[in-house]
Amino acid sequence: MMGITWTSSNLGYPRLGENREWKKLLERLWKNELDEETFLKEMKHLRLNHLKKQKAKGIQSIPVGDFTFYDHMLDTAVMFGIIPRRFHSTDKKISLSTYFAMARGTAEAPACEMTKWFNTNYHYIVPELNETIPTLTENKPLKAYLEVKEELGIEGKPVLIGPITFLKLSKGYKKESFGSLLQKFVPLYVKILQELEEAGAAWIQIDEPSLNASFPIEDYFFVQKVYETFQREVPNISIMLQTYFEAADHYTKLVSLPVDGIGLDFVHGWEKNIQALKTEGFPANKSLGVGLIDGRNVWRADLQKKHSELELITSYLPEGNHFLQPSSSLLHVPVSTNSERKLSPVLKDSLSFADEKLEEINSLTNMLNKKPDEKWLEKNQKVFQRFAETFRQQSEKITGEKNKLPSKRSLPFSERKTHQDNKWKLPLLPTTTIGSFPQTKEVRLERRAFRKGEKSINEYQTFIQNKIKEWIDIQEEIGLDVLVHGEFERNDMVEFFGEKLNGFAFTENGWVQSYGSRCVKPPIIYDDVAFEHPMTVEETRFAQSLTEKPVKGMLTGPVTILNWSFERDDIPREEVAYQIALALSYEIKALESAGIEMIQVDEPALREGLPLKREEWDRYLNWAVHAFRLATSNVKPSTQIHTHMCYSEFHDMIEAIRALDADVISIETSRSHGELIEAFETAIYEKEIGLGIYDIHSPRIPSVGEMKEMIERALRVLPASLFWINPDCGLKTRNKEETVKSLKNMVQAAEEIRESHKLQIK
Ligand SMILES: Nc1nc2c(c(=O)[nH]1)N[C@@H](CNc1ccc(C(=O)N[C@@H](CCC(=O)N[C@@H](CCC(=O)N[C@@H](CCC(=O)O)C(=O)O)C(=O)O)C(=O)O)cc1)CN2
Ligand code: MET
Ligand SMILES: [Zn+2]
């Protein structure tokens, strides 16, 4: 092991700031409460602060250029001048207003599509390549590099999304043109790298996570070509080709690429990566980036364990300098545990957010470079010991109850349908919504006042009841067939349940960016999950008491609660999903007993949880479907179970959707312009289905005509007796006026179609 040295490194840092300063600056700019100059100044301050902090934590290789005003994919697209025509930009250097128009849309131009970043809850803006010819509008990494060098004297490591991943995640081109398109981008990348080389940058991090996501081996031809060009054209710069979120798909090919360093995820891809390292070795002239601190979860690292893992890795490594780093960018974890004052000390000590993770990297690097800090290690061991003594016992009681729960409805769908049609007597093409109504500033401020003790529980509950009443009245007036209570009492569809279930902790300030300025505060599963008391019955029953129309109960499903929380990492994920499912089955029973017999169990995260590697899909889908069925099967045949999913692209998992055995599923379709309808057309789906007929992410109010067209299109492939009419998703981010107008048009569209088709009762 002589001759190996280690450098502490980071791959990306959260943008948000300790108190969501980033989000607040953006939202003030958008509301014209801030001028552009002040905005830029404040953002720069934040950006430099983040870099100073990383340096102070002992990180030697600090990423620059990962900061953004919205999203790093959007930045890359804009850097390459990929601006869809509808934004009419003639700027040489793209203005901030064009940049935000692409992200958020304008009255005239719909926003660019947004989709999930691999298997995370982060969303990126999808570049639309179409007819645009890429050009370099600005060398963003260079700007970032020079900024920190001049302002702070820090020699940063510029970060770029690699050309392979950038193209794989873009749309607007045919698969066959991948190679020729790539040729258009490579010279631009070369230019960026050359300018960085001239400016004195030593290492560049090029992110290529696509190489771990079931990457087709034949496409390595392109990867090889791209990196050969970089090596030839920019010989004096060192490239760290960074992969993450999974093990490398084709290890031998990856490590023999002509680059100077290879970054691997040894948290999510431990087994495969270590096996490959052992059998294939690691090239003598390269540096390995060892991603050993989990960039996706919040648990403190067991330094002893990490140290022995590192010893194992080291035993396969050639001499030279290697990097110790998080498994991915720290974008996916909150900033710091510092401001958490309410967590139990045992739990708080067991957590590690971005800042604490940097400290772990620093300690481990010191340990490796033979400067072990015994006290640190001892303290770390104590944390683990105390945690193990206090929490994390899998209870046999829960396992026993779970084993008794049915995972199959008592009757098949065809027979349930008769019961349900008789019970509900809905018109054909029933209209409904997905659950939430506008979470206005008023609602959030009221909750804040309650949280801070400025409002009593009674005052808060009365406020919520008034909101429910207001919106039941609105829904009746609009003429919807199945109503909802509106979810006003919920801060978030996952955090809300986390707060009410046993085994979850929630933070005060553990925010993570979800998309643009929107954030989530994922709860932390630290113990057995268990049902304590009904969570949604009171509000739902109250809503039902106000109307003759059915009110649909509204729950978040087990897979989504799991995927959008920070989960235990010491028991299999599916076991946690089953525990949540058991808890939800009690909630469903409680709703049923309270007379709520139409219940929606949302699973928007089912799709994003799909493993990045295709060969692991079946195993995941099996347990995910099983969890949903455990939660929803223990009901009467006449009880109608709905589910909801957004983010389209279901064509490759229709079988799993069918296996959920939900009576009604509502899915997002409007942004994919009917592509999804085709998927259902070819797959033959025999249960009830609500295809979203308008995009809720945009303030635009859809016309009756366009919605009728969407419905007509669906009716060409789906029998009217199975079809529901609803928006794409919940309406919490919309305002009241937009919501009411859009829903009125939606109901009118449904009525006109019923009329013209002479469709009456189901
Ligand atoms: N967990 C989760 N993941 C998800 C989704 C989701 O709904 N939940 N949906 C998709 C992503 N979509 C999203 C849509 C909206 C928001 C969103 O609106 N987030 C809010 C925070 C929601 C929240 O927790 N609100 C708290 C209040 C938080 C807050 O900032 N309060 C202020 C006061 C209120 C104010 O000034 O507005 C304070 O305490 O100072 C509440 O309602 O209680 C935001 O960023 O602004 C997030 C994700 C996919 N992933
Ligand atoms: C992201 S899916 C959201 C479903 C939820 N019931 C809502 O309407 O907000
Ligand atoms: Zn949704």
From TrEMBL:
Positions annotated to bind L-methionine: 434-436, 487, 602
Cofactor: Zn(2+)
Gene Ontology annotations of biological process type: methionine biosynthetic process; methylation
Chain positions recorded as Zn(2+) 1 binding sites: 644, 646, 668, 729
Residues binding Zn(2+), per UniProt: 644, 646, 668, 729
Region Disordered, annotated ranges: 395-418
Residue span(s) of domain Cobalamin-independent methionine synthase MetE N-terminal: 8-315
SUPFAM superfamilies: UROD/MetE-like
Biased composition (Basic and acidic residues): 395-404
Pathway(s) this gene product operates in, as recorded in its UniProt entry: Amino-acid biosynthesis; L-methionine biosynthesis via de novo pathway; L-methionine from L-homocysteine (MetE route): step 1/1
InterPro entries: Cbl-indep_Met_Synth_N, Cobalamin-indep_Met_synthase, Met_Synth_C/arc, UROD/MetE-like_sf
Binding-site list for L-homocysteine: 434-436, 487, 602
Domain Cobalamin-independent methionine synthase MetE C-terminal/archaeal: start-end pairs: 429-751
Reactions it catalyzes: 5-methyltetrahydropteroyltri-L-glutamate + L-homocysteine = tetrahydropteroyltri-L-glutamate + L-methionine
UniProt keyword annotations, A-Z: Amino-acid biosynthesis, Coiled coil, Metal-binding, Methionine biosynthesis, Methyltransferase, Repeat, Transferase, Zinc
List of catalytic residues: 697
MF GO annotations: 5-methyltetrahydropteroyltriglutamate-homocysteine S-methyltransferase activity; zinc ion binding
Coiled-coil segments on the chain, per record: 733-760
EC category name: transferase
Binding-site residues, 5-methyltetrahydropteroyltri-L-glutamate: 20-23, 116, 121, 518-519, 564, 608
Family indicated by similarity: Belongs to the vitamin-B12 independent methionine synthase family.
Name of the molecule in the record: 5-methyltetrahydropteroyltriglutamate--homocysteine methyltransferase
Taxonomic lineage from the root: Bacteria, Bacillati, Bacillota, Bacilli, Bacillales
Gene that this sequence comes from: metE
